[in-house]
Design brief:
The complex is a heterotrimer of chains A (438), B (130) and C (219).
Chain A lengths: L9 H8 L3 H15 L2 H9 L11 H5 L8 H14 L6 H13 L17 H14 L5 H13 L7 H18 L14 E4 L3 H4 L2 H14 L3 E2 L12 H4 L2 H17 L4 E4 L3 H14 L8 E4 H10 L13 E3 L3 H4 L5 H11 L3 E2 L25 H6 L2 H10 L3 E3 L3 H13 L5 E3 L1 H8 L7
Parallel strand pairs in A: 1-2, 1-3, 3-4, 5-6, 5-7, 7-8
Helix pairs in contact in A: 2-7, 5-7, 6-7, 9-11, 11-21, 13-14, 15-17
Chain B lengths: L1 H26 L23 H8 L11 E2 L2 E2 L10 H4 L11 H16 L6 H4 L4
Chain C lengths: L1 H8 L1 H28 L1 H4 L4 H10 L7 H5 L1 H20 L1 H11 L8 H24 L1 H4 L4 H21 L5 H18 L7 H19 L6
Helix pairs in contact in C: 1-2, 1-11, 2-11, 4-12, 6-8, 8-10, 10-11
The chains are: A mainly alpha (438), B mainly alpha (130), C mainly alpha (219).
Chain lengths: 438, 130, 219
């Protein structure tokens, strides 16, 4: 076997300096004893060590089928050892467990679909992350976003006035194209609250522009909050900081409640959807989200089917569609997404495998957010995705998720694929009828 | 070449198998087994049972110990049935409280063997492969 | 020898089945109890409909994507699990003992067929064992307990075949056969063989999550 590379990360190193074996033991046993319950017990006692989950994992497949990168291999190197040794593990072990759980698993849950017993390996990796968080070993870059969450309630240190300013700026720009367009702020009683992730006002303002154009053309009764709570993203969910995740989601839902909207429509982000639709609500004690949450893919489908947006032109060149885990394995939106894609791009070439069996982008689950130290490893760990993209032979890939975009971009670059990436909203914006446009 | 060898090997095996199978009846001792026509084709090797040796060893003089007579589900004392085949009463399938033929044989032997702590009780002790 | 035989086929068998039954109840109960105490929230996501949907789909050979990715393993694994219970329940010798003890009977497999199946089950166990050595991804997560459990599972079949063919000392074999089976029964609730009891729970739970919350197939 190739020698294992353990990457140096400032956050992990600094955290490790402060650790003692006693603290590790106490923390592990506190988490396993107080927070983990029947699931971990059943999973550890049921796993037959059959290795059938391996085939599901892009890390395993991309790294020459190295068993240390298979889902169960990662479990063996982390949680099994902690359970077996009752928390008596070394500082070195915890550093390695951090790298494995935080940067070598995207929590994409594909392996869950491959385990005959339906063991949720993603859950076990999240549990390791929880321990890592409590031991303050979380990698530097993603911890920075979590700090941003706790200080500003958004992921990207966006200041309160900076947010409003970004929206005004986009509204101004938009009115040059659609003179009557508005980005309504703080409109109480609107039907829709549109929420985005922190990076949109910071780096990808054109996405806000495009979404606003779609909202205006479709004639939606919508609003965006002018206060913190506008960001639906959630890196705390991926660092095991459940308390912070609770604070974030609570503010998000309370903002929607304050604006008395009927539903929250979210931009094309996967992890944020997982947080608002699946995990954040649970932390707050809500079985399902207290306000109806609609992902962009479903929203576009609604608009198209209700005739609110119309296709003006189609993209004839062949395109392919990447299924993001959190809205496909996490919400089953793959067919609706395809209907929308086909309406604008009739020449859809499928990747194999696709839909709920699609191969992950290797960026999600907070992995890309662990930043530059882990970038090469991450890209190297997804050659199967590159092969999958390449096999389609197309030059345009639609990926309706921010993390997927980041991950696929790096892969396209590294493996020299001649391919362009787009959000579905970009395509709709380009190709829909805009009656009032000047 | 390989196929030719394989062919010869197959013939050799077949011959050995035939000789083995044909020699089985030659070894069977028909007079010292419980032969029961009613069962038809047998699943297990026929049970070895030498009537006289058994009774001598077991010191059984009274025929009725084994060749019993039941009426209305009750044992009739003093009557015996050694002139009848077991299968005349015990049909293959059980009838009410009267056990089926196979069960009758098994019980008849095993219950006594267990009680006396002597004699075979496990399947292969009676159904011995030859 | 008769004493040992009677002990093993009588009181010990009762003891083994009792421990197995009580152990199984305890295992399921304790797991559900931990769920009630610590994962109360999870119970809100359990759906009979989607749980069963998942269990059924994973019970059909070659029905899931992963089963089709591993056709040989899938074939052997399905055969092994079905044959295991088929032999336990339908072998004539087992059935005769049950009939003599409890007065109930049912159809049986002809001995010659059962013999072939038993050999095939041993073959399946060897396959599982070899797979643990030659497949790196399996070898990596295999430890001695996996081989011990596999040997324990195979032992009633090996001794059963030897006893049936009356190879070696017959009484020793048949007693060993019963002892191995009893040991296996007792081990089920207390080892990873408890997947027999817990798999429907883990499968049902994840099936519920995938079906009810995520609206997607989990196979």
């Amino acid at each position: 076997m190739k020698e294992r590379v353990w990457i140096k990360d400032e956050g992990i190193e600094r955290g490790a300096e402060k650790l003692t074996p006693e603290k590790i033991e106490k923390t592990i046993n506190a988490v396993l004893g107080n927070e983990a319950g029947a699931r971990l017990k059943a999973y550890v006692e049921t796993c037959a060590h059959c290795g059938l989950c391996s085939e599901a994992c892009h890390f395993y497949l991309s790294r020459d089928r190295d068993p240390r990168f298979s889902p169960v291999g990662k479990v063996k190197q982390t949680i099994w050892e902690m359970v077996d040794k009752k928390g008596k593990v070394s500082v070195e072990f915890m550093k390695q467990a951090t790298q494995i759980a935080q940067t070598e698993c995207n929590l994409c849950r594909r392996c869950v679909q491959y385990c005959p017993f339906g063991i949720d390996i993603g859950y076990m990796m999240s549990l390791v992350r929880r321990i890592v968080h409590k031991l303050e070993l979380t990698p530097l870059y993603i911890q920075d976003t979590a700090h941003s969450h706790s200080a500003t309630m958004n992921q990207m240190w966006v200041k309160d006035d900076e947010w409003i300013d970004a929206l005004h700026w986009q509204e101004d720009e938009l009115r040059e194209e659609l003179p009557s367009a508005r980005i309504p702020l703080e409109k109480e009683g609107a039907e829709i609250m549109y929420s985005v992730i922190g990076p949109e006002p910071k780096f990808r303002t054109q996405l806000i522009y495009q979404a606003a154009a779609i909202m205006n053309v479709a004639g939606m009764d919508w609003t965006m909050p002018a206060t913190p709570g506008w960001d639906n993203s959630d890196m705390a969910m991926f660092t095991g900081d459940s308390e912070m995740m609770g604070r974030l989601k609570r503010l998000h839902f309370e903002t929607a409640a304050r604006l008395r909207v009927k539903k929250i429509v979210m931009g094309e982000c996967g992890h944020a959807f997982r947080s608002v639709y699946d995990t954040g609500n649970r932390v707050l004690g809500w079985r399902m989200s207290p306000v109806r949450v609609v992902h962009a893919l479903e929203f576009y489908w609604d608009l198209l089917n209700e005739g609110r947006i119309k296709v003006a032109k189609q993209i004839e060149e062949p395109v392919t569609f990447h299924d993001p885990c959190n809205v496909v394995r996490g919400r089953g939106l793959h067919e609706k997404a395809r209907e929308v894609v086909r309406a604008f791009c009739p020449n859809l070439v499928e990747m194999t495998p696709n839909r709920e069996h699609n191969i992950c982008c290797a960026a999600g689950g907070g992995v890309i957010n662990c930043g530059p130290p882990f970038k090469n490893s991450r890209v190297e760990s997804n050659s199967v995705k590159a092969e999958q993209l390449k096999a389609t032979g197309v030059k345009l890939c639609i990926a309706p998720c921010h993390n997927c975009h980041g991950g696929l971009e790096d892969i396209i670059h590294k493996y020299k694929l001649d391919m362009q990436l787009k959000f579905l909203g970009e395509i709709i914006y380009d190709c829909m009828e805009k009656p009032d446009a000047v | 070449m390989m196929r030719h060898k394989l062919h010869r090997y197959t013939i050799y095996c077949s011959v050995v198998l035939c000789i083995t199978l044909c020699s089985i009846p030659a070894f069977s001792q028909e007079d010292t087994v419980l032969k029961v026509e009613a069962f038809g084709t047998l699943e297990r090797p026929i049970s070895a049972f030498d009537h006289d040796t058994h009774n001598e060893k077991a010191e059984i003089q009274d025929c009725a110990v084994c060749h019993h007579v039941y009426k209305d589900g009750k044992l009739v004392e003093g009557e015996s049935s050694e002139d009848q085949a077991c299968s005349e009463c015990h049909t293959l399938k059980a009838q009410g409280s009267q056990p089926g033929l196979r069960m009758a044989y098994h019980r008849q032997c095993k219950e006594c063997h267990v009680e006396k702590k002597k004699g075979p009780v496990a399947c292969g002790e009676c159904h011995v492969k030859k | 020898m008769q004493d040992i035989y009677l002990l093993v086929s009588g009181p010990l068998a009762w003891a083994a089945w009792t421990i197995f039954a009580l152990g199984s109840v305890w295992k399921i109960w304790s797991t559900l109890n931990v769920a009630r105490q610590k994962d109360q929230v999870l119970l809100n996501y359990v759906s009979l409909k989607y749980g069963l949907r998942s269990i059924i789909n994973w019970s059909i050979p070659f029905n899931t994507v992963n089963m089709r990715l591993h056709p040989v393993f899938t074939g052997v694994a399905f055969f092994f699990h079905i044959a295991f219970f088929a032999l336990l329940v339908f072998v004539s010798a087992h059935q005769i003992m049950i009939e003599e003890g409890f007065g109930i009977g049912w159809i049986t497999i002809p001995d010659a067929v059962a013999d072939i199946i038993a050999f095939a089950v041993i073959g399946a166990c060897i396959f599982f064992g070899v797979r643990r050595v030659v497949r790196p991804e399996v070898k990596y997560v295999t430890d001695w307990t996996d081989f011990a459990l596999l040997a324990l599972v195979a032992s009633p079949f090996v001794t059963g075949v030897l006893a049936y063919h009356q190879l070696g000392d017959y009484m020793t074999m048949v007693i060993l056969h019963m002892l191995c089976a009893e040991l296996l029964l007792v081990a089920i609730p207390f080892t990873r063989l408890s997947h027999m009891l817990l798999a429907p729970l883990t499968r049902g739970y994840i099936g519920s999550e995938f079906g009810m919350v995520r609206h997607v197939k989990d196979w």
